Amino acid sequence: MDLRSTTVIGIVKNGKAAMAADGQVTIGDTIMKMTAKKLRKLCGGTVLVGFSGAGADAFALVERLEEKLEAFRGNLPRASIELAREWRTDKYLRELNAMLAAVDGHHALVIGGSGEVVESPDGIVSVGSGSPYAIAAARALVKHTRMGPLKIARESIAIASDICIYTGGELQSEEICQE
C-alpha cells in the first residue's frame, strides 16, 4: 500500500514559534481523510511537534520525545538528540516509518529515523510530501513580508496545498511564545 500524506511546517521568529499542518491522508491516489490532526503541544505547551509518515509510528515517536523532554527539563535539542540516538539503535524503533519536526521559541529541528537531528539555520523546518513547497513559500514570506510565524506557517501550507496533491484538507495551526 502506497501511503502518502502530510505537510507540516514550523517557524521560529523573534522568540515565537508556530506550526501548521494540512489534514489530508491519502492511500495511493485516494484521499482517505481530510481532518487528521498532525500537531501536538508538548512539555507544558513550550514545544510544538508535527509528524509525517505512518500514524501509529509517529504517535510512538511523539510519546518518546515527550519522555525525553521531561527527562531533560524541556531542552529540545538535547531531548531530540537522545531520541534520535535511541531511534537509531533500538531494534523496534528502527522499524518506525515517520519523521518529526519540532520547534520551541529558539530552535527548529527535524528528527529522522536514521539518527539525524537537523537544526534549521533560518528557523524554518518542514516534513512530509509537500515540505519543499512549504519551505520555499515560508522563506519567501519571511524575507518579503512582516508576517508573524503563525501567519507565515498557515500561508505556507495553503501555498503547498495548491501545488502538492498530497497536501490538503483541514488546516491546523498552533503558536507558542517563549517566556
Which SSEs are present, and which pair or pack?
Blueprint: E1 3-5, E2 7-13, E3 16-21, E4 25-27, E5 30-33, E6 39-42, E7 47-53, H1 55-71, H2 76-89, H3 91-94, E8 98-103, E9 108-111, E10 117-119, E11 124-128, H4 131-144, H5 149-163, E12 172-177
Antiparallel strand pairs: 1-4, 2-3, 2-11, 3-12, 4-5, 6-7, 7-8, 8-9, 9-10
Helix pairs in contact: 1-2, 4-5
Task: Explain this structure.
The protein has a single domain (3-166), classed as Aminohydrolase, N-terminal nucleophile (Ntn) domain (Glutamine Phosphoribosylpyrophosphate, subunit 1, domain 1, 4-Layer Sandwich), CATH 3.60.20. The chain is built from five helices and twelve strands. The chain has helices at residues 55-71, 76-89, 91-94, 131-144, 149-163; strands at 3-5, 7-13, 16-21, 25-27, 30-33, 39-42, 47-53, 98-103, 108-111, 117-119, 124-128, 172-177. The strands form three sheets. A five-stranded antiparallel beta sheet has the order 6-7-8-9-10, with helices on one face. The protein has a four-stranded antiparallel beta sheet with strand order 11-2-3-12, with helices on one face. It has a three-stranded antiparallel beta sheet with strand order 1-4-5, with no helix packed on it. Helix 4 crosses helix 5. It is globular, with a radius of gyration of 15 Å.
Quick structural gist:
By secondary structure, this protein is an alpha+beta fold. 36% of the residues lie in helices and 32% in strands. The chain has helices at 55-71, 76-89, 91-94, 131-144, 149-163; strands at residues 3-5, 7-13, 16-21, 25-27, 30-33, 39-42, 47-53, 98-103, 108-111, 117-119, 124-128, 172-177.
